[in-house]
Amino acid sequence: MLGAQWGDEGKGKATDLLGGSVDYVVRYQGGNNAGHTVVVGDQKYALHLLPSGILSPGCTPVIGNGVVVDPSVLLSELSGLNERGVDTSKLLISGNAHIITSYNVTVDKVSERFLGKRKIGTTGRGIGPTYADKINRVGIRVQDLYDESILTQKVEAALDVKNQMLTKFYNRRAIAVEQVVEELLGYADKLAPYVADTVLVLNQALEQDKVVLFEGGQGTLLDIDHGTYPFVTSSNPTAGGACTGAGVGPTKISRVIGILKAYTTRVGAGPFPTELFDEDGEALRRIGGERGVTTGRDRRCGWFDAVIARYATRVNGLTDFFLTKLDVLTGWEQIPVCVAYEIDGKRVEELPYSQSDFHHAKPVYEMLPGWSEDISKAKSFSDLPKNAQAYVKALEEMSGAPISAIGVGPGRDETIEINSFL
Ligand code: GDP
Ligand code: IMO
Ligand code: MG
User: Is GTP-binding set as a keyword in this record (predicted)?
Assistant: First the structure.
């Protein structure tokens, strides 16, 4: 299950909904840049690092090797849930997952400040610098917490260049190796009960015909390879990321579900062809509650973009869509949907690979008739007003994969299931 747009599509709700019927829910990339909201009855949970399956008692939540883990955030998320009576004892964390250290958070913040107007608008959680260390082979992994001598050597190697950069280039104080090592060792015992060989656990589970659900963070257009680079996150939320980030082969994956919002939102900088700067945009933000769960920033809002949905179908090999937040569109007389772009006077049907073309892309809209009836109580497709049905059918046709579920409200039961996911 993954985001088909720029994140915040409702992955948390969708994952939680299936959590009750699957054996494992696995996060495979990203870190606490994610903010997944789950509403169960009158309780609302904001999850950042923990897989949304943590709220389903029968399900084992797994943090895969592809995730970057901030230990202090993880421990406070766990204790926050424990205080609310959620049992978190089944959690498994890959020993190969990389750790977001305090210096990675510092580097994220200072480099964004240094970029000035060209900044990415990151969440400031140290995500990019931690993945950079991983690729540069100077990263710290969860397993390193259990060997003080190796940990010290690795922190030394990581800080060697960084301290030069911080002091000489960014005008900041150097970070002491001993201080970082001491802080990291302080997490070791607390995390120890959860650390496991998650690749082995997941593959054994699949051999025993258990059902494993992979929960993406962020979304397709924020993917480091397939997104709107450089305005992206530093990992692969797209489907292939589930294989590398969890150590499960592509032949083991049977369904790839794209979570798709009935309109579009984006947080942070970067191109967004259907973005609205008028009262419609304001209305989507207000009605949809489009404010970041992680950073509290207002989300940029715009109409549905079918070019992006088709692109998501292609790069992920989507088998299904879960369409969310259809209820938010109630009340518009007509709803514009972007069916193609106009770039330098030419109509373009598919996402251009060139960044300069995408920055110029103007949406070509088709108007679909709206509806005014409250749809939040709809339980089946036929309960929806005719125009809402037609809107869903039109999106399905344009997007290239069947819409198998529709969200009509934030709660678990505010969902219309059309085809079973299992
Ligand atoms: P995620 O990051 O993809 O998990 O999405 P977020 O949790 O950041 O943002 C989605 C927001 O929409 C959350 O506040 C959800 O509770 C809410 N939500 C999810 N599905 C629906 C839906 O079908 N209708 C409405 N009205 N809200 C929804
Ligand atoms: P969920 O999982 C929306 C955006 C940031 C920024 C860019 C890079 O809740 O959908 P980063 O801190 O990752 O280096 O920031 O990516 N971003 C998200 N936008 N939802 C998210 O997660 C996001 N995680 C990162 O706003 O533009
Ligand atoms: Mg979110």
Answer: yes
